[in-house]
TrEMBL record:
Signal peptide: none annotated. InterPro entries: TPR-like_helical_dom_sf (IPR011990). Gene3D superfamilies: Tetratricopeptide repeat domain. This is Uncharacterized protein. Pfam families: TPR_12. Keywords: Repeat, TPR repeat. It comes from the Eukaryota. Coiled coil: none annotated.
C-alpha cells in the first residue's frame, strides 16, 4: 500500500545507497519514493516531495545523466 512514510523510507534508502557509491540502486529507490509521493497526492512544493525531487536529480547527476537531472 502507498504511504507517505514508506515513500520517505525509500528516499532515505536512496541516500544511503548514494553514500555507498551504489548510484543505480540509489536512483531506483528515489524513483520509488517519487512515484509513491505522487500517488498519495503530495504536491511538488511539499518539503518531502521537494527533497525527493532534489535527490532524484542528484542520483541522475551521479550517473552522468546531466540532461535528465536538469529537467527535474
Amino acid at each position: 500500500a502507498d504511504h507517505i512514510g514508506i515513500a520517505g523510507a525509500y528516499n532515505n534508502l536512496g541516500n544511503v545507497y548514494r553514500d555507498l557509491g551504489e548510484f543505480e540502486t540509489s536512483l531506483e529507490n528515489h524513483r520509488l519514493a517519487h512515484e509513491m509521493y505522487k500517488r498519495v497526492g503530495l504536491p511538488a512544493i511539499h518539503p518531502d516531495m521537494a527533497d525527493c525531487i532534489q535527490n532524484l536529480a542528484m542520483a541522475h547527476h551521479n550517473l552522468g545523466e546531466f540532461d535528465v537531472a536538469r529537467t527535474l
